[in-house]
Design a protein that fits this description.
Blueprint (H helix, E strand, L loop, with lengths): L18 H12 L2 E8 L5 E8 L9 E6 L8 H16 L17 E4 L8 E8 L4 E2 L7 H21 L34 H17 L8 E4 L8 E5 L9 E6 L6 E4 H13 L5 H13 L6 H28 L4 H4 L3 H14 L1 H15 L12
Helix pairs in contact: 3-5, 3-6, 4-7, 5-6, 5-7, 6-10, 7-9
């Protein structure tokens, strides 16, 4: 969902390979014969769903995602390596994360000349295992899966922060990376993209309150490595033991680690709450279920809980402002960029209309109800 390691979110060239060029790339770099290929929607990289034909089924998976990274991020191989190594680590730890298919040279990625556009930019190329499942955005998310997503967010950050060790990990200190939740104040320089209206006024309030109430408290939050983008398109689920009236879901895939950075545990739960609100018919109730799942693994401190309202509002603001800014620069990608905006503005305005106290009351009372009645574990093998 991001680009760049500084505060310039869109100083990049998005790859623009055709299916024929992508097919040739898979064969040349990875030594695989493509049987079919199709373009997937993406924010600033280029992704293809690829099916390969094999002589022997034991040779490996048949389906992959060819990920061609934008020109800006491709200049940071250590960062891409850290992201990929994290995915491999999480897969080994039992999380449903993709893993890379090695190049013919035995590497996890390869820097390749991209399209024939201006300057012939170079793009980092990876071939990742394809994860089956349905994006959360496409289901009617119930309390059970919202709780599971909260639990996943805490478990994932905890595993990365406590057990993931790799030399490239230092690249996750990303300073003024615009999508890091600590950098909400940097939105000042992109807010012009909203024009002059009620939306801009609310975002300006978020930024000012964030500067005054969140930034001074950061040092009291518990630090960790964040996935940073557990949105409703980056979490895949499948249903098992499902009845039409009460489907039970499990997370079957975690996608897109490009926003990974050092941050704080409370950032991850705030980001998950915000994105789970997007498609919900009852968005304000979402936060309590996600929070309950998160706190079943990692209870928040009083300071962290007190910042949650502004952190969720801050992520709404980041998503809405940066999408508007990028759409001005790349109008051909507007439909994908504005997915969140369709309902995001409505949810942010409603949160501010109700106020922090009322929203927190809903979230915290819902979460508290779980302490005496946690959801039953889903039977294995269902």
């Amino acid at each position: 969902m991001s680009s760049g390691n500084d505060c310039q979110p869109q100083a990049f060239t998005k790859p623009a390979l055709g299916e024929k060029e992508a097919t040739e790339l898979v064969n040349r770099v990875f030594g695989l014969k493509v049987s079919w290929i199709r373009l997937l929607p993406s924010y600033d990289d280029q992704n293809f769903h690829v099916c390969v034909s094999r002589k022997d089924a034991a040779e490996g998976a048949d389906e992959y995602v060819l990920k061609i990274t934008n020109s800006e991020d491709s200049q940071e191989p250590d960062l891409i390596e850290a992201q990929t190594q994290a995915m491999m680590f999480l897969s080994a730890e039992g999380f449903p994360s993709a893993t890379p298919y090695l190049t013919k040279d035995g590497n996890i990625m390869s820097l390749e000349s991209g399209d024939t556009g201006p300057g012939n930019k170079k793009h980092m190329v990876r071939l990742l295992t394809y994860l089956p499942g349905t994006p959360v955005a496409k289901i009617a998310a119930n309390a059970q899966i919202l709780y599971e997503i909260g639990k996943l967010a805490a478990s994932l950050d905890k595993a990365l922060s406590e057990k993931f060790h790799h030399p490239s990990i230092k690249s996750l200190h990303r300073g003024q990376f615009i999508w890091n939740l600590a950098n909400v104040p940097l939105l000042d320089q992109y807010i012009y993209a909203l024009g002059q209206n009620k939306y801009r006024e609310v975002v300006e309030q978020v930024i000012e309150q964030f500067k005054g109430k969140v930034i001074p408290k950061l040092s009291s939050f518990r630090a960790c490595i964040n996935h940073g983008d557990l949105n409703d398109h980056n979490i895949l689920v499948d249903s098992s033991c499902a009845s039409p009236d009460n489907p039970q879901y499990r997370v079957s895939g975690i996608l897109d680690f490009s926003d990974m950075s050092y941050g704080y545990y409370v950032f991850e739960v705030a980001i998950a709450i915000m994105y789970m609100m997007i498609e919900s018919p009852d968005p304000l109730s979402v936060g309590g279920h996600v929070l309950a799942g998160f706190e079943s693994v990692l209870p928040l401190t009083e300071e962290e809980r007190g910042a949650l309202f502004l952190l969720v509002s801050g992520r709404f603001s980041q998503s809405l402002v940066l999408a508007a800014h990028t759409a001005l620069r790349h109008p051909e990608n507007t439909e994908y960029l504005m997915i969140t905006a369709k309902t995001g503005w409505k949810h942010l305005m409603k949160m501010f209309e109700l106020g922090q106290e009322a929203v927190e009351k809903t979230w915290f009372e819902t979460a508290k109800a779980y302490t005496s009645h946690a959801p039953a574990e889903q039977p294995r093998g269902c």
